[in-house]
Amino acid sequence: MYCKNCGKVIDDGSNFCEHCGIKLNYAPEVVQADNSKENELSTSNEKKFTYDSPEQTNKSFVANEIVMNFRLIVYAAGLVALYLFAFYLFHLDDIKRFDRSLNHEESYWGESCYDPDILYNTPITAWEHIYYDKLYEELYGAEALYREKAARVAPRTTEQSLKLADKIEKDLNKKIANNEKKHLYIIVKGEKQIMYGLDGKPLTSEPYQTPEHLKEEAKKEATKNTAEFCEIINDYRHSGFEKDLKKHALYSAIICLSLLILGRYLIKAIKWTNKNKTL
After folding, report:
1. What is the phi-psi region of residue 193: left when phi exceeds 0, alpha when psi lies from -120 to 50, beta otherwise?
2. Number of C-alpha atoms within 13 angstroms, CB side, residue 182?
3. Inter-residue contact 125 to 225 (CB < 8 Å)
4. Can you spell out the DSSP letters for the chain?
5. Nearest CA to 123 among 236, 234, 227?
6. Rg (Cα) of the chain, in Å, rounded?
7. What's the burial of 200, exposed, middle or buried (CB within 10 Å: 0-12/13-18/19+)?
8. Which residues in 100-116 are b (16+ Cβ under 10 Å) and which e?
């Protein structure tokens, strides 16, 4: 350090100048000043070089992983929604409402992939078949109609039913023209037998219905059966589509979420390997 009186160099910490002999009173202040500077440097170094504890590092890592995985879940949900929308558009024709009337067909059975191959106990929608059955039952009875249906080898066309109905119409019209009535029957051991009166003549009940009336009833029943048949097909289509949609939603959610999460960790592993490899 330097003397404040003569300006010559003296030893650090001297109380007197060896050149001019003056007493030096600022040495402690200099040392104190120097110590304060060292304290400031040490404080600034402490502020500059700070380290997180392992516990804080683990907490931040876990929090970051949770946030990133939550984002992946949101992305996966968006991809699943997009896939299901495309799935809906692809099957739009398969869930089209089945609507068919006697004279017009907007859709047909088998058009949709959800239509069943075989339907059991479906209502008859062709009025010609219903008309033939009603004529046969009116003329010969319900038991005879049951046996006639059991004896059928193959289903008939509407033209065939009308052709067979013509003969029954003639026989029925003859009975109506003769004012004949239906016979009363009783069931004996599962068989239908005509009831006879005291005079030995068969008992009769109500008159026969006309073919025109039976034809009108057949057309009304066919219209009702057609509506029921359409509802059956529509139930198959909608229930089949809902089951298919739920299955695809589950599978697509699992696949999308698995690919996104595994892909993220695979990319992290590749980056970490490239950063820390020594070769």
Report:
1. beta
2. 15
3. yes
4. -B-TTT--B--TT-SB-TTT--B---HHHHHHHHHHHHHHHHHHHHHHS----HHHHHHHHHHHHHHHHHHHHHHHHHHHHHHHHHHHHHTTTTTS---B-SS-BSS-TTSSTTS-S--SSPPP--HHHHHHHHHHHHHH-HHHHHHHHHT--SPPPHHHHHHHHHHHHHHHHHHHHTT-EEEPEEEETTEEEE-B-TTSSBPEEEEPPPHHHHHHHHHHHHHHHHHHHHHHHHHHHHHHHHHHHHHHHHHHHHHHHHHHHHHHHHHHHHHHHHHH---
5. 227
6. 51
7. exposed
8. beeeeeebebeebebbe
Q: Which residue has tokens 């003639």?
A: 170
* pLDDT tens-digit series, residues 43-98: 555 444 444 555 555 667 788 888 888 888 999 999 999 999 999 999 998 888 88
Amino acid letter, 86: A
Strand partners, 202: 196
What pLDDT does 215 receive? 93
CA gap 127, 102 in Å, rounded: 9
Count of all residues that appear for the chain in the document? 279
pTM across the whole model: 0.58
Q: Which of 15-24, 107-116, 125-134, 209-218 has the lowest mean pLDDT?
A: 15-24
How many angstroms from the chain centroid is the CA of residue 74?
19
Instruction: Name the nearest CA neighbour of 211 among 252, 165, 253.
Output: 165
- Residue 136 has which token pair? 């046969």
* Spatial CA neighbour of 132 closest among 155, 114, 116: 155
